[in-house]
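Note to self: user wants both folds in one dump. Writing first protein now.
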Amino acid sequence: MMVDLVQFSNSNFDPKKWINTACHSRHSQQSLDKHLIDLEMKLQMLSEEISASLEEQSSAALLHVPRATRDVVRLRDDAGSLRSAVSVILHNLQKAEGSSAESIAALAKVDVVKQRMEAAYETLQDAAGLTQLSSTVEDVFTSGDLPRAAETLANMRHCLSAVGEVAEFANIRKQLEVLEDRLDTMVQPPLTDALSNRKIDAAQDLRGVLIRIGRFKSLESQYSKVHLKPIKKLWEDLESREHASKSANEKSEMETMSTGGDFQSSPTISFSNWLPSFYDELLLYLEQEWKWCMVAFPEDYKTLVPKLLSDTMMAIGASFISHINLAIGDAVPETKALAKGLSDILSGDMQKGIKLQTKHLESLIELHNITGTFARNIQHLFSGCDVLVLMDVLKSVYLPYESFKQRYGQMERAILSSEIAGIDLRGAVIRRVGAQGVELSETIRRMEESIPQVIILLEAAAERCISFTGGSEADELILALDDIMLKYISTLQETLKSLRTVCGVDYGGDGTGKKDENQNARKVDLISNEEEWSMVQGALQILTVADSLTSRSSVFEASLRATLARFSTTLSFSAFGSSLDQNQIIHGNEYEEPSFGGRASLDMATLRLVNVPEKARKLFSLLNQSKDPRFHALPLASQRVAAFEDMVNELVYDVLISKVRQCLSDVSRLPIWSSVEEQSAFHLPAFSAYPQSYVTSVGEYLLTLPQQLEPLAEGISTGEANDEAQFFATEWMFKIAEGATTLYIEQLRGIQYITDRGAQQLSVDIDYLSNVLSALSMPIPAVLTTFHSCLSTSRDQLKDLLKTDSANHLDLPTANLVCKMRRVNLDS
């Protein structure tokens, strides 16, 4: 048996467990005693071997101790010697440092003196050279050597900067400015010729002359001036063609007038059809200039060609705006006939009845999209330019549309107002008896159909805002949509008021807000049951109108919030903040360099916001607020929607309770309550065993009402929504039943005196109504139960009833009131 010594060194070694394991591993034919004796012997022999090995290794270690001690002493002595040597070296270095510092300070003073002497020498040389240059510069100009003249002027400028503000050289400074202007003027003719005829070498030499005297702006100006002429000719081609077409039409009109024939005008040139070709030719011209300038002006082509485009757009800007304005007017025959544009419509300088239409704005967006395509091509062409240069160019491209974008909110209001005014939302009118239900149904149908139409119009407005402004006018869009929704809901509310009149539940004219039951209530005897229920069913349909308005406006508002969230992502740069570094653009709340990876980052909305920090701050404040789940994109409209829903619920309640109100209107004044029992020879009941007609009418109405509410539930989809609709219908059922009970109790409290016969009859009436309420699963109010208990009890036993234990379940004020009605004195 092999013994594993590792097990004995474990901290959790268990001797008993080890012995048991060793016993289990013995051979089956070997006895246990012999196995244990062998195991003990092996362990003893192993222990003796370990002891002998330990003694041998300890003796060897003791022999090595003296040698190690001598080595340690020797190392300590060597360390002390090294420390002494290092100290001496440090002492010597400190001495050398002190003497070197004094020497270096002295040398520094000498060097300063030397530099001053050299500067003075150079200044004297510059002064002498300046005087010599001033005297010979005229000869240089006379020679016509422009590069030499530029070099001379540059040297004079250098000498003047060296001598500083010295009074003796003031006249030379003025002479230098005059000479620089003179040289600039001399360069312009050959520069114009070189640019016009594409003479690369000459253009480069002349550029060097202007750069040498610091007149790069002159090169930019002359470059733009030379190339503006052919570009403006492209633009003027449209105006010349328009003028030719107009002249041809006038000539044709005069000829037809003289011959008496029919005049047919020749078709005019459409600006929207012509503009893409102009942009194509302009882009081709710029591409050619870009390639030529890369060779002729490799250092400056990234600024020269973009500035040419900016100057071009500034030159044709006023004409561009005028053509846009007229092109928008041509989109609609009414304004085209008057030769008027968008600005004329917005300013009110139009004939009465001419309004801004969707086609006008769509035409403007079409032109803007054409320009947007050109802007993207320009951004691709000038992608290697500095971002600020590129921004200036793109802003100039979009500049003709800026005045229209600034009035976007006004345009959207005018368009939406006109479109909503075209929706049939006329109020209901009172018709003859029998046709009021039809009028009610038709009016509700118009209201319900108008809601999706209006939402579609609002959604289209949001899309127009994205297409035209890229979201930079989102704040104006929100204000316009909120305002239009307010006007629309106000129209719905006015229509709702007309429905009250048709339904006969309008308010009295005394301004108190109370219903005039005698004058304004619908007369039951004048209309049939079918008409009655058709009006009830129509009134219930108004709930669908309110539900549709609430749900669709909520969905649209959620869509607006999503649009605002998309704006906060797409508007990646803005002029947000009071100060803007010229080499940076703000991203959100942090500065960062723009990049052109993926989607073009410098879109039209970004370009506008960079220049208008206040508008950017206002817009981004709105976008940040829109991230809050409690944010209402249309705050005023949301409140008005809730108010409209309340008005609808009030109208529906008044219509549904109207039948009950009419049936119970005179209950407190019925003569039967004060009637006396008639004398008869036969034993007859003192009251009718059947409830009276007023309460049976109410009961039958309440029991039939669930059937009228079923279509309302069926009109909603199945599933959870159907369960919600069933709950909604049940809620209205309970609301009407509760209202009927309240009205009935009010009438009972108005009874001044009731005889025993009247009390018995009223008890039967109350019992019938209670059974109806129970059938509708309505709880019976304690007040009504008290009336029934006190009225069904004989007058003589009424006082005892109030003294019994059952009186605890009665409403005491009501019980006292019944006692007063029945002339029962409780004090006696």
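First done. Writing the second protein, which came from a different request thread.
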Amino acid sequence: MNYKYDTSMARADKSCIVKGDKYRFTILTSRMIRMEYSEDGKFTDDATWLAINRNFDRPVFSVKEAENSLEIVTDDLHLYYDKRPFSSEGLSVHLCGDYTLHGSRWSYGDKVSNIGGTARTLDEADGAIPIEDGLMSFEGFSVIDDSKSEILLDDGFMAPRKEGLTDLYFFGYGHDFLSCLRDFFHLSGEVPMLPRYALGNWWSRYFKYSEKSYLELMDRFEQENIPISVAVIDMDWHITDVPKEYGSGWTGYTWNKDLFPDPKRFLADLHRRKMHTTLNVHPADGVRAFEDAYEKMALDMGKDPKTKEKIPFDAGDKKFMECYFEDLHHPLEDEGVDFWWIDWQQKNGSSVKGINTLKMLNHLHYLDNAARNSHPLTFSRFAGIGSHRYPIGFSGDTVATWASLKFQPYFTATATNAGYTWWSHDIGGHMNGDHDDERTLRWIQLGVFSPIMRLHSTSNIFLGKEPWKYAAYVQPSMKRFLQLRNELIPYLYTMNYLTHTKGMPLIMPMYYKNEDYAARYVPNEYYFGENIIVSPVTSPSSHVTRRSETMTWLPEGTYYDFFTGLVYSGGKKIKMYRDIESIPVLVKAGSIIPTAGDYMNCHVENPHEMVLNIYHGDSGEFTIYEDLPDDPEKKAFTKVEYIMGDGVSSSIRVSVSGDMDVIPKDRRYKIRLNGVYDAEEVAAKGLNKEDYTYSYDDKARCLEISIDAGKEGCSSFEIDINLTDSSIRQMDITNMLFETLQAACISYNLKQDIYFRYINRKSDVQFLAEVYSMDVMPELYGAITEFVTAF
């Protein structure tokens, strides 16, 4: 087996190394130092699980050395070492800059107050679980121990590290978390590009489907106008009822022909429905004699198939792993399987000491898939820092409770601290719990604004996540959010590209871009891309207001609610109240969010109608990335700029560069300029008058411009707009108050009293004081206060 894994960049520049008989320091950047100690003076320059590229641009540093001391000074760090075995007295690093009350200093062996990273699995989690350390600390530094991680060989296999050595990486990036993450990706490997289809909706369930029932279900989704991009087939695709002598039926590689009589036809039918397919595989039990592939695999392994002896799973055996792919997986891929859900059963599965089985599976499955696909994919559990190279993460079988839902936004955002940016959760909860229509809806809403949107549940006949199985009052919102997920793919795919090329993760904790202490204390709030902030709803609605409350902190600036259009001034914490139609999703003024006009097809092709959602109040730009799924080397970049002038004038510029074959020739644009007054004039450069139209939506405070740019010479154009007023136009607060009171479960007289007090108010402050004195329920007072004081 030879996958030709590239380890050529593992060796650092010699000029960056300071070395003694038993120690070695490699100054990788001015803020990252590798620290090694070995009694025999032997060190590794091989690629390891953590570090595959130590070749950085040489930083500026100085060395001061005496007989029993060594100092290394960079622009950001000062290292002190006594040239003895590493100890708390003999090795320390000081940061230039104070990030704690007593300065930022690390000594060997210190416990770092780490912010946290992620965890291997959420299996059986019912609420919060402990998480492993990540790369970030508010103290300004962290240390990652690479002493025991595997060596990655250039043939794609792994080897154990030599025992008894110390191999540490010191990250001293202060609060510059994004730079820390980008340099980590340089060291540990870039995050791969996901295929476009992976960003749509996944359907998954541990359930005994048949070919007929599964396809009928997919047809029902299509009839309901709910797009599904990935069809996940859990373990019942293979034979599970096996003779007693073979043990359990968890592991299998042979289709259950009673359920799937013609697997190739079944997979082709899914592909015709514009879906990609993954099958679940539990490889721990090896290969047994009832499998169709047993005889060939036994012969290839040099065993007599007549003995019917089990072929044990062994990730440390190169020959076994070669047959594992060639005899078990490739024939199924030839039938139409696109990638694999690796559901390893947490057992020791390697004959080589020091080889982690899950790491080996993730590594080799990804390399194997890369041999067949331009955007390779695996679906498996987190195997420690460095796992970002093998997306996507399967987080495990959570309990279906509010506590589990409440933990997931924090868990997902904090995982970025470990470089793990593509988690896929069991949206709605996997098992146990109880039926709760609102909670399932809120989980779906979170899923739409998560890295991967995968509906999943166990085989309990009442636990399916089909929207039509839930109460009528939540169904429309469930469907609309699942449609929205596909509409967001142009934005998501661009962020996918920026994660891959720039180390800019889709999900970021609020403290990544804000030094304000408040950013540390909103654990369930996060950035969704560069300019969107999401504050998911993770608690049930009030019986009084029919709304749920979230505590949301907004940095300085002006923000629009993506759903309601309400405009907020930032620099404060705000209690936000949402009915079942939405969650707080805040977009900064000047932002441009591209979405697709056709939500049913944009997971497989670039949209024929591109919607440009622009938020008035500041200038801004966004460059949309697109490529061809079957030829990703063909790329196109659509730069969209919004330029606010000094007065009522503003301009929108659209220019396309790159390979024009990527852009559909009949592409149309719909521009939605939010938060504006009506336009006196709209004129276009680069377009004929008949190529564009515009209208004003008074209720939404939105100017809509429709453009047919699918004509020769229309790849670039500019729209000049003269508004009747250049200021931001707030939504109708009176109407919002009326709708809030209409839904509230309070006396009719109290509703009317509050409403007319607002109509006749002398000031907002006076009105709120009067309502407060009326002793209304706190949640109703909070909901009224939110939009009255928003901007």
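Dump finished. Worth passing along: The mean pLDDT is 96.
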